[in-house]
Design brief:
By secondary structure, this protein is of the alpha/beta class. The chain has a single domain, classed as Rossmann fold. It contains 8 helices and 11 strands. A hairpin with a 5-residue loop joins strand 5 and strand 6. Helix 1 packs across helix 7. The protein starts with 8 loop residues before the first strand and ends with a helix. The relative contact order is 0.15. One of its GO terms (molecular function) is O-acetyltransferase activity. Belongs to the PC-esterase family. TBL subfamily. It comes from Triticum urartu (Red wild einkorn). Pfam families: PC-Esterase. This is Trichome birefringence-like C-terminal domain-containing protein.
Length: 299
Amino acid sequence: MLERSRNGRIVFAGDSIGRNQWESMLCMLASAVPNGSRIYEHSGKPLSRHKGYLSMIFLDYNLSVEYYRAPMLVMVDRIPPVASNKGASVTRGAIRLDALPRHATRWAGADVLVLNTGHWWNEHKTIKSGNYFMVGNRFNMKMDIKEAFRLSLQTVKDWALSNPRLSTRGYLFFRSYSPSHYDNGTWDTGGSCADQRDPLMMTTGESNQEYSWINTMISSTARGTIRQQMDNRVVFLNITHMTALRRDGHPSRHREPGTPPDAPEDCSHWCLPGVPDAWNQVMYGHLVSTGYGMRLVKK
């Protein structure tokens, strides 16, 4: 992967589970570099930073592996709270369905771009948190989440097709939804995945309802991009079923240092080494099958 990616950029953009996959890629590539001191963050930012973006440089390969936080893939503007008639602040943010985040200009020029979204597309993260959908300069207070998600993906597709470098030589992966495994509640109501030591042997249809509509729309976006221009360089990276089996792979109560002892369990993100490594292996398999970086390898 390092040789094939020489003088290139691998970019991950999405939510914190996309960051999980980015961290996995960093660890896997770093294990093949004998001199770890020649790997560094471009601007000297600590890897504990969760906002904005991070760019790790593999100096011996002139390669950057970058992560951009964009949980909804479209722009979310924070605005001064607008009070309701009862005095409660109800409008805190504008989810601009027809605009990408400001740092999306940095996604341009990626040799490999991996996008993920889905976990923030629910009522708790949007309407109930005071984040309403906007198209142009107008709020749409009645639009449902599925229609908003569809419009956001259309914006992403239009951007990809209008990006000269990406549409002519880059690889674009739309990663599918990564299932969570909370039992006896949700993340904020005491849900748990503690003491799960074995993968599931099968999943039920009921457990797939959480994300089936999200995957349907993401795969449709990928197919539409392929048909219009980008052939086999656009991929719906479907990791959902294999991931749904891995109830044993979450940090659970073993959170990062400094997490309060009474914090909710984490049954959404993944331990490393672990499940995201498999996502990256599947992605690399597709890249190899399409001749990614062969000119560099032959030299």
